[in-house]
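To: structure subgroup
Subject: Chain for Friday's discussion

All,

I'm putting the inputs and outputs inline so they're searchable in the archive.
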Amino acid sequence: MLVATMGWMALLLLSNAVPALMSPPIAGLTAKELHDSFDQARGSARHEAIDILEARGTPVHAVVDGVVAKLFLSKPGGNTIYEFDESGTFCYYYAHLDRYASGIHDGMHVSSGQVIGYVGSSGNADPSAPHLHFAIFQLGPDKHWWQGTAVNPYPVLLRLLRL
């Protein structure tokens, strides 16, 4: 597989697509609060995300202008949001939410910084450790919300926070 051989960053550079966040998913987030857990094992799979520990009920913000592609309740992720950027290149995944923001629905346009949900521990998350599970996927040509190439959100968030 090309990604395994070249690495995800090289693949993104070849495709000329690099995610550019407009705002952090949590207001006031700092670089020292982030820990790269993208390659850590979670059961039999890689994590392919970053967990941002926050108090239950902390507002979660859209990181880009885009569209809510899907609100989804899953056993592992609990209450989740899949947000596509306006170009349909990247999907931003927010999981373990306590609840959605009032009025959020599939197909809705959201603006960067808009509150879309609240930190929680739904799904398979430890109830005593509420957090935002945040992931980025480069979408394929079919633009399926459930399919894409995982992109490590850690360096993307660091780049945003250090600007």
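Points worth raising on Friday:
The chain has one domain: 2-161.
Residues 2-161 form a domain with the Glucose Permease (Domain IIA) fold (CATH 2.70.70.10).

D.
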